[in-house]
């Protein structure tokens, strides 16, 4: 019996019993790469353009162990509706690439008050400045020895 890689993966992976995801046919679907951010937490996910927002929330629920009802997702400061597709928010292969994922913000419901928190994103840190010896001549560093023309003529 000869199995394709896809069939072998289907056989090897046990489905999660408490998570059901409805997916449209994947023919022609393109991956969308997302960076889901909340406070100091960043989650990188990839999905299809035809993925529903509720399915995205289910992925997050599996990671953070927070129910979908206690999550809100925002893209470009707009609350994302559970019944809409990612493509409805212009999340596609040209706006959400692997090397530059689209940023989606996550807020959670406060258990005590029952209200959703405000969007709070801790800025990503910036790397320290390069030492002078590592800078190229284009950036103003002095990484090459300079020999004067007088010493070459002697």
Automatic annotation (TrEMBL):
SUPFAM superfamilies to which the protein is assigned, alphabetical:
Ubiquitin-like
According to the entry, every stretch annotated as the Ubiquitin-like domain falls at 30-95
User: GO: which molecular function terms?
Assistant: translation elongation factor activity
| InterPro entries with a match to the protein in the record | ELOB, Ubiquitin-like_dom, Ubiquitin-like_domsf
Protein's GO biological process = transcription elongation by RNA polymerase II
Q: Which UniProt keywords apply?
A: Elongation factor, Protein biosynthesis
Listed GO cellular component terms? elongin complex; VCB complex
Q: Where is this region: Disordered?
A: 124-154
Q: Where is the composition biased (Polar residues)?
A: 139-154
What protein am I looking at?
RNA polymerase II transcription elongation factor-like protein
* The species this protein was found in: Dinothrombium tinctorium
């Amino acid at each position: 019996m000869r199995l394709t890689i896809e069939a072998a993966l289907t056989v090897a992976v046990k489905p999660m019993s408490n998570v059901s995801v409805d997916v449209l046919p994947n023919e022609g679907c393109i991956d969308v790469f997302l960076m889901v951010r909340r406070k100091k937490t960043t989650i990188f996910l990839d999905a299809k353009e035809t993925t529903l927002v509720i399915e995205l929330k289910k992925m997050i629920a599996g990671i953070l162990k927070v129910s979908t009802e206690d999550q809100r997702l925002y893209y470009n400061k707009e609350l994302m509706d559970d019944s809409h597709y990612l493509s409805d928010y212009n999340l596609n292969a040209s706006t959400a690439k692997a090397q530059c994922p689209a940023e989606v913000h996550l807020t959670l419901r406060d258990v005590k008050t029952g209200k959703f928190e405000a969007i709070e994103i801790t800025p990503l840190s910036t790397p320290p400045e390069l030492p002078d010896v590592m800078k190229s001549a284009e950036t103003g560093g002095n990484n090459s020895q300079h020999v004067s023309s007088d010493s070459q003529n002697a």
